[in-house]
Amino acid sequence: MRNPANVAILGATGAVGVEVLKTLERRKFPVNKLILLASERSAGRHLEFRGGMHPVKAVTPSSFAEVDLAIFSAGATRSREFAPHAVKAGAVVVDNSSAFRMDPAIPLVVPEVNGGDLDRHRGIVANPNCTAAILSVPLWPLHRAAKIRRVVVSTYQSASGAGAKAMAELQSQTREVIAGKAATKEVFPHQIAFNVFSHNTKIAENGYNEEENKVIEETRKMFHEPGLAICVTCIRVPVLRAHSESVLIETERKLSPEEAREILSRAPGVKLVDDRARNHFPMPIEASGIDEVLVGRLREDPSHPNGLAMFLAGDQLLKGAALNAVQIAEMLLRR
Fold this sequence. Notes:
Layout: E1 5-10, H1 15-26, E2 31-38, E3 46-49, E4 52-58, E5 69-72, H2 76-88, E6 92-95, H3 111-114, E7 124-126, H4 130-146, E8 148-157, H5 164-178, E9 197-198, H6 210-223, E10 229-236, E11 243-251, H7 257-266, E12 270-272, H8 284-287, E13 293-300, E14 307-314, H9 318-334
Parallel strand pairs: 1-2, 1-5, 2-4, 5-6, 6-7, 8-10, 12-13
Antiparallel strand pairs: 3-4, 8-11, 9-10, 11-14, 13-14
Helix pairs in contact: 1-9, 4-6, 4-9
């Protein structure tokens, strides 16, 4: 990949695409030429980057000529359609959708966890599910230290995970309910304001929804642990931005809360928030807009000799999507 690189963003006007653009600018990614792509519906808009306004164009198979890096945030259907064209044109695709995540020939990467897998890419790198990405950052250093045997996760997932329209629906429903009106449902199947419900993805034959199965399968793939025991329950909550997760791990050897704090205090991509005296632990409102995954509430599991419980929060639009994609791009550039 050239440095500086010609960069294309597909899905540039969506919630993740906008964050990708901001993250490229904030991290001073060496962009030579910027190409913003979206559907016909969004074509003609302009987005700001480094003080200039850049036009959004409708994506076509020929949109990737001379592109070095293409960051896709437009859904699995678009990714399957246009990624082959981008690769054929010579670009490396970092894809935010589910299209290629479980393809054994395509690396699924969180740089703090398995950045070395980038060495075997063939033009496409998959960005993991947001919940799996946020979970993996603090679990990986603990896994390296004490070998995780089992993980039990309950998630508290914000509206941002379903995109900009879902965030707007939470805001509009909140105003409606406060005004004594019925909540208007367009994005979510249930009222999101003042409510929680099981993640709005299809239930599979095993009884788990698509989001839960993604977390299980993708964590195993990134950790190179196909037999890792994981149980996940994914829940939508009325939070605008940033996901939270209650996590219980069982390790091969006992990992005390004190040792875990020491490991996590030095772990890349992690910020320890574990103040028992002030009862101050990770919160989505404090995780919103920052790069690190917040981790705290570290405590022994009284039901298992090698159990450790914790709570974490991470920005779904950043580490769960845009930031991770840009970090992958940075690693590709260094290679």
